[in-house]
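pasting for the record
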Amino acid sequence: MKLLQAWRERLARWFEARLPLADSVTLTQRSVYILPTGAGLLMALTLLVLLVASINYQLNLGYLLTFLLAGCALVAMHLGHGTLRGLTLTLIAPSPVYAGASAAFDVQLVNTRGRARRALSVAVAGTDQWVDADVDAQASTCVRLMWRAPRRGLHRLPTLTVRTLFPLGTFRVWTVWRPAAQVLVYPRAEDPAPPLPLGQADAQAGPTHVTQHSGEPDGVRPYRRGDALKSIVWKKMARSGELVSRDAAAQTHHNLWLDRQATELSDSEAQLSRLCAWVLLADALDLHYGLRLGSTEITPDHGPTHLQRCLRALALA
C-alpha cells in the first residue's frame, strides 16, 4: 500500500513538473481531461446487461431503452467536456501573511461563451476542500481559496484543480493548473510583544542610549496640553487608548537599531519572531528604527514602506 502511494505521489510530481507556470490560462482540449466516475462505470455495466438481455429475448423496447440511455451518456460526456473547454482562469495574487496564517487568494473564472457553465469546483490539488461556482453566459465570477504555507519565506502558490461532474455525474472532467504567483510569509510575531531593547540607539548627538519617558520608548511621551494634533501618535491611541505625543527633540537625536543580538535568544526562528514583534511595535509608535540581519542592513526610517521592507527582510532571512 505504501509502495502504491509513493508511486502515485511520484507520478503526480512528474506530471505537475511538465505543466507551464502561468497566472492566466484558457483551457483547451489538450488541457482538459475526462474519465468516467464510479456511477458512470455502473451505468456502462447496466447498459451491457440490458443489451445482452435485449439480444437474448429479442426485446424491441429493451433495445430502445438501451440505446436511449447510451445516447444520454454520450451527450452528458460532450456537455461535461464543453463546460471546462474555453474557460479562462486568472489568479489574483494574495497579500503577504504571517507564519501560521492561511493565505487567501482569488481565482477568477471568465466565461466568454453564450451559455452558462454550471457545477464548477475549484480546490488546491491534493485536498478535498472544493469551492463550487457557476458562471453565467458572458460573465465572470471569483472563488476564494485558502492555503497555509509550511514556513516563512517566499513560496509559489500550490497547484490548483478545476473540475465538473455536470450534467449527470457519470463523467469527471478536470484540469490541473500551476500558478506562477508567489506569496510572502513573514515570521510569526512573538505575542505578547516584549519591550523594545534599550541601548540600541544610534546617537547623532548626545548619549548613546535610549531614554524612557514615563515608561514610553524614546521618541514619544505622554500627551501635554497644547501639543499639536499632528504630533499625537494616533496608532498607539487606536491600539491601547493611551494618548501620547512624539518627542521631536529626542527623536531627532536617536535612531533605534534592531538586530539578532538584542533579542538575547539562541534559536534563529525565535530571534526573527521577536524582531518581527519589535518592528511592528516600533511602527505602531511611529519611531525611526533600523534593522540589521547579518549582511543585510536597513537604515532607520519609518512609515508603511519602511515597515514592508523590514518585514520582507525578516521573511527572507
